[in-house]
Amino acid sequence: APEQQPVAIPPNTKALITAGPTYEAIDPVRFIGNFSTGKMGIALAEALAERGIPVDLVLGPSKESTQHPLITTHKVVSAREMYDACERLFPEAAISILSAAVADFRPQEAAAEKIKKGSEDTMQLTLVKNPDILAHLGAIKNAGQTVVGFALETNNELEHALKKLKAKNADMIVLNSLQEAGAGFGHDTNKVTLLSADGTQTALPLQSKKEIAKSIVDCVLALKYNNA
Ligand code: CTP
Ligand code: CA
């Protein structure tokens, strides 16, 4: 990691974090979800709070939680609920870090009653695309707002992540390397590379999610308040 100089954080700086999975209802008792635990996002919220920055944490279904007094947790279930919460909270946020594993699609309609298995051997579910929260915030951000996203890739990772950085108008993408043993979903360690819109790339060593979160926050604060 690069040398970190102390940064002066302006008063009244607030942050927005998304974390965890989203659940998309199929019927009253079933959903489409993923294995995200929310640990990375909670660690990011805590790292920001440790720097004295109040955080709105928009958290999908997760058994993890945080008690930090500077963190306000907004629990949501679906991608659309997460989108609505972010839209409401974003105007206040100088820094937004979107670490949630948002379901890309949801069932076109959630059945009102439990779906019966019936006599057919196959069943079809029609899915529709969810709104992209990162792309939306990237599109509406003002000059004082920094928006950071994540990218989870299994192949051509750098190329895909750089595409996301551009397409979503993000200031930084945290590229999650699944190829490394001990990195990614369900693990307590991660290996990430930070890709900034200014072209800099910073590869962080394999570290605990807590340490990674601290490094990401240090880099974002340095990028935002150290330049010029
Ligand atoms: N993201 C989001 N809203 C969505 C989908 C993704 O805010 N509906 C955010 C994630 O929180 C993450 C970034 O976009 O910060 C990239 O997510 P990822 O799943 O890696 O990329 P996608 O754009 O969804 O593309 P794909 O899944 O096809 O790789
Ligand atoms: Ca996705």
Please characterize this protein's 3D structure:
The protein is an alpha/beta fold and 228 residues long. The chain is built from five helices and 14 strands. It has helices at residues 39-50, 79-89, 133-140, 157-167, 209-225; strands at residues 15-19, 24-27, 30-32, 55-59, 71-75, 95-98, 105-107, 127-129, 146-153, 172-177, 189-190, 192-196, 201-203, 207-208. The strands form four sheets. It has an eight-stranded mixed sheet with strand order 5-4-1-6-9-10-12-13, with helices on both faces. A hairpin with a 2-residue loop joins strand 2 (24-27) and strand 3. The radius of gyration is 18 Å and the shape is globular. The protein starts with 14 loop residues before the first strand and ends with a helix. The model has no long low-confidence stretch (mean pLDDT 93). It binds cytidine-5'-triphosphate (CTP) and calcium ion (CA). Cytidine-5'-triphosphate is lined by residues 18, 79, 98, 100, 102, 104, 130, 132-134, 149-152, 164.
